[in-house]
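tool_call: predict_structure(chain=1)
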Amino acid sequence: MEYLTDIEIAHANEMKKIWLVSDRLEIQRDDLELYGNYKTKIDPQAVAGRPADGKVILVTAITPTPAGEGKTTTSVGLADALARLDKSVAACLREPSLGPVFGVKGGAAGGGYAQVVPMEDINLHFTGDFHAIGAANNLMCAVLDNHIYQGNALRVDVRRVACRRVVDMNDRQLRSIVCGMGGRSDGVPREDGFDITVASEVMAALCLAEDLSDLKLRLGRIIVAYTREDEPVTVSQLGIEGAMAALLKDAVKPNLVQTLEHTPAFIHGGPFANIAHGCNSVIATRTAMRLVDYVVTEAGFGADLGAEKFLDIKCRQSGIRPSAVVIVATVRALKMHGGVPKKELEPENLPALRAGMGNLLRHVENITQVFGLPAVVAINRFPTDSEAELELVREACAAQGVNVCLSEVWAKGGEGGLELAREVLRLCEQPSELRFVYEDETPVRDKIDAVVKKIYRGRGAFFTPAALKDLKLIDKMGCGHLPVCMAKTQYSFSDDQKKLGAPEDFDVTVRALKVCAGAGFVVAYTGEIMTMPGLPPVPSAEKIDVTPEGEIDGIF
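tool_result:
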């Protein structure tokens, strides 16, 4: 059977003018900042007087595999299904990065008949938020280097510059560079490198800020370098937080688009969950909570990364609390966790599925037992899934006290998510109280150890000599109260991406820590995680094209 591609489905859809979509939210048209007919920014201050009492539904997933799970597709389809049940609902998603779009993952706007549109705009430049974030980040770097060149009154140690320039593209060639080469007027030579834009602390600060004023304060706290005496040098000492905020005055406003079924969708911010906190902006989530009764949002990668950071960082800082959690899985991916190669996933294989179920059940236990939240497992159904396989998943989850709902939103849109939507509505009425993995006053070292033991189920964290030195500096700076943001491979509970399923008896190696005072967390770099991805042998960019009429093709 031949299926339409995602972009073919999107092009066949007739979008509504975005002001008609906003009418469902009771937003005055004067409060829209239109970017054409189908996307707009909304001034969050225009609705600030409304109570933010919408219920938040968090969509997360098992540990990702090349077989795919479909978290964004499920989020969009669930929002459409709730709308079909006459609920006031909006989706809240992250903006895609150009790195994965042109790299290996492709687009990130959902799939099949559960997409947000216009999908090609969303996947490419959208409303320019990422460009503004990159410009603000690179202004910070340029002013710092200029300060060093102009006499270095702040006594910056050029070997300890803490900020790196960014570009929203996978470009391994820029990971490590030497800059300032040439003559005396070309700057001070030093080692440097680039991160991908989504790894910028500016991105994290924007996504965790409450408003533009709070963002400006956060920007001022960003540590750009250290002196030889271990004293931090901040953006506010450079005097440019106002200029950076000016570049971000429009980017801080959430973007509104629509699903294929015209459900409102806020798409704003895009930090990766393996190297940052992996959630859309607090501003967008809270704006949606003021406008609808149910907000469907997602956190990146598996629940050990995105969901843990959503709960331990975003919820801790903002006071937002989810009413229910959806854990997305596929039978195919669970069999891959059970040791089956990607090419052999279609035949029924109950032993492999049983072996791979440990991954799903660990995520379920973390959400329900560690964090104390009601959860449902959503199985994205594939035609090759056998009834025996689906029943095995149901029985295993039932033993954990969690229901399983089949999701067919990729093929059927909101209609394919009605069973899931009804279960989510039931869960939203269940009493629950979010518990964090650690308390604010817990030392940073113990916070990291708690995440490793309670969420990953490892023996503990091993700190290299460099990381131990970083811990001492964190204590000296008085930043031990900050939450931790684990930078870890997304492909395993451990820091070794080859350990699939539910590994045990492992240590997580912490090789460095970084205080992100603007974002309000401490990043712990584990294993071989990188903040600048590379392109695969055959990048997705080779499949993307544009017709003479300006119609884009090849984004999937």
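agent: The chain has a mean pLDDT of 95. Proceeding to next step.
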